TrEMBL record:
EC number assigned by the record: 1.7.99.4
Residues in 4Fe-4S Mo/W bis-MGD-type domain copies: 1-45
Protein name: Assimilatory nitrate reductase catalytic subunit
Database matches in InterPro entries: Asp_de-COase-like_dom_sf, MoPterin_dinucl-bd_dom, Mopterin_OxRdtase, Mopterin_OxRdtase_4Fe-4S_dom, Mopterin_OxRdtase_prok_CS, Prok_molybdopt-oxidoreductase
Disordered: annotated span: 1-21
GO biological process, one term: respiratory electron transport chain
Keywords: 4Fe-4S, Iron, Iron-sulfur, Metal-binding, Oxidoreductase
Organism: Actinomadura livida
Biased composition range(s): Low complexity: 1-17
Claim: Mitochondrion is one of the keywords in the record: no
A Pfam family per the record: Molydop_binding
GO MF annotations, alphabetized: 4 iron, 4 sulfur cluster binding; metal ion binding; molybdopterin cofactor binding; NADH dehydrogenase activity
UniProt xrefs under SUPFAM superfamilies: ADC-like, Formate dehydrogenase/DMSO reductase, domains 1-3
Amino acid sequence: MTLTRDATGTGGTAVRVTPRDDVPANRGGLCQKGWTAAELLTVPDRLTTPLMRARRDAPLEPCTWDEALDRVTAEAGRLRALHGPDAVAVFGGGGLTNEKAYQLGRFARIALGTSQIDYNGRFCMSSAAAASGRAFGMDRGLPGPVTDLAASGAVLLAGGNVAETMPPFMRHLTEMRDGGGALIVVDPRRTATARRADLHLQPAPGTDIALANGLLHLVIAEGLADEEYIAARTTGFDAVRTVVNGYWPGRVERITGVPVPLMREAVRLLGRASRAHVLTARGAEQHARGTDMAGSFINLALALGLPGRAGSGYGCLTGQGNGQGGREHGQKADQLPGYRRIDDPAARAHVAEVWGVDPDDLPGPGRSAYELLSALGTEGGPRALLLFGSNPVVSAPRAAAVQDRLDALDLLVVADFVPSETARRADVVLPAAQWAEESGTMTNLEGRVLRRRRAVPPPDGVRTDLEIIAALAGRLGAPGKWSTDPAEVFGELRRASAGGTADYSGITYERIEAEGGVFWPCPAEDHPGTPRPYLDRFPTPDGRARFVPAEHRGADEDVDADYPVYLTTGRVLAQYQSGAQTRRVAALTEAAPEPFAELHPDLAGRLGIEDGARVRVASRRGAVTVRARLTADIRHDTVFIPFHWAGEGRANLLTNPALDPVSRMPEFKVCAVRLEPEVPPAA
Ligand SMILES: Nc1nc2c(c(=O)[nH]1)N[C@H]1C(S)=C(S)[C@@H](COP(=O)(O)OP(=O)(O)OC[C@H]3O[C@@H](n4cnc5c(=O)[nH]c(N)nc54)[C@H](O)[C@@H]3O)O[C@H]1N2
Ligand SMILES: Nc1nc2c(c(=O)[nH]1)N[C@H]1C(S)=C(S)[C@@H](COP(=O)(O)OP(=O)(O)OC[C@H]3O[C@@H](n4cnc5c(=O)[nH]c(N)nc54)[C@H](O)[C@@H]3O)O[C@H]1N2
Ligand SMILES: [Mo]
């Protein structure tokens, strides 16, 4: 998303969003959401006063900030005294600036003393992050500046529809193709992105491990593996070679549905390019085996000798506005700032010193996002939740069950700028400032830290997240200083990150300004930053990248006689995430007014479903009713529903919360469903 970075304000409410040519990641391009994002500043139901309900069944009513904050801290204090510090939980978001993400993690650990904090990035890039950490010793989206892509000879993009989800990014791929490079897209749907590719592989959802293993099998068979690189820069190849030996082309075609000649073509394009990239996005990550799935594409990249070679490599495409920075500063359940592990004694000692607390007083690791949400209000689970920057009633898997857990809480507090579906269920709603009304830093998909300046003052009655956190921390008697100034918070973040994997200690606001952004790790003010971190060595103990073998298994929930069709979910151009923001913008709701089920005419014909008719889609967890959209661009065995809407078309009523064992990512991208035409109500 680019809307946060490109706002240049003209004052008052007449904010215009203008593209900037000096931010290379964007090339001055903006997606449709960006052009109209300014409207969000003036949506009619913008929250401008705190709201509170007296009892669970009473309506939300306006109140003062003091009343709202007193209620939160009194109730949190009571629950803590009764049930211990883990009774209060925190949930953050990848849309928060680095400063806010950092402060939220610190607030949870030392103001509330709770281990129970996680964030929506767990639903986003956690599988690729885990796989990258495992293979490279570090997780940073792209291996180098995004402009490297334009000079690439071949890019394989697995599970990303960037033409709709990152339109400005698409330009780098277009430039690459104009320069003679080849784009290979792996997606069960012939998306807008796949249509612009030289080669489209269309596997069944959930079969990417088999496909990546099959491609690697062919790389080896055709003598395209870079044996010299493998020997010099990696470990573990033999185990992977043994596993992929079992993925001969005919077998992989049977599992994935991808014809053998297309696999051979993909391998030739990749293997013959002097520079190449393997990229994954959510389609090849949001699976109960998402870490192994991203990992099997990393294996492919390693066998081709790409990571650590300038202008080549593996990358994971970032999602939210601060998807990269949001996962570095400690809002993850197992993490401290600087991408440190919370169970590492040295990391605890360092961060505790910066925070002025005893390391023994820092809580340990907490529950991952879905596990946290499903523990709310249960025996031994948290009794209160403070939520900043997510709308899980729409975006969490198995959303009806999550909604029940939220309703079972003693206290739900939501800071937001609009009354999202989740905010409307809260006991206390805190009106927050939004992207154009505050400053801070974000870290983009290249690992480049960028500044975002305030364009307009927030409306009266609204506070920034830093102000909200500071007010709560003050009332809770938390140790240390709770600054509301992003620059000051960034100064502390730098110290907390020093020596960690994501080392920001040499990055200053002034440098970001002067240099157009600084790439982490940057351990000193005279250090140039690190645009290409793997050129000489990988940050693993032995300096080598690690191959990790993975066998294909089917989806956690495979199709059967009762639920014979695969469901996959994702995005459309004109809506963003849970839709809390974009469903309020007229131009966007006009472009994408309602949820739909995309299905193949052959499947529709068998089921008696007509184009535009309403269809009921049911899984073992729930049912939705949406309009059918027939298209030959999707596989015969798969239906696609975007997840941006609430109400009877809420895709997450259907999804399977089976979790990846390493990343704890839910299986958003595949489950089993049944479709039928909606039965007209009896007259
Ligand atoms: N317009 C818009 N842009 C956005 C967002 C938005 O909500 N709206 N959200 C932002 C965020 S947070 C994110 S994370 C990114 C996400 O960006 P993307 O990853 O590009 O988005 P998705 O639509 O979730 O998934 C991409 C593709 O994965 C395919 N897919 C489904 N199942 C499988 C599978 O098993 N294997 C493979 N290989 N592919 C599969 C889907 O058909 C889909 O086309 O977009 C960001 N940009
Ligand atoms: N079925 C299915 N479900 C999915 C996915 C999928 O592909 N399929 N994708 C998953 C992914 S990748 C993601 S990232 C999640 C995203 O889903 P969510 O976590 O729900 O993200 P948003 O819809 O962006 O919700 C952010 C909320 O916080 C508010 N907000 C935004 N910025 C700020 C801020 O700075 N401060 C405060 N206080 N509030 C703010 C917004 O108004 C909005 O109400 O959805 C996940 N859910
Ligand atoms: Mo995301």
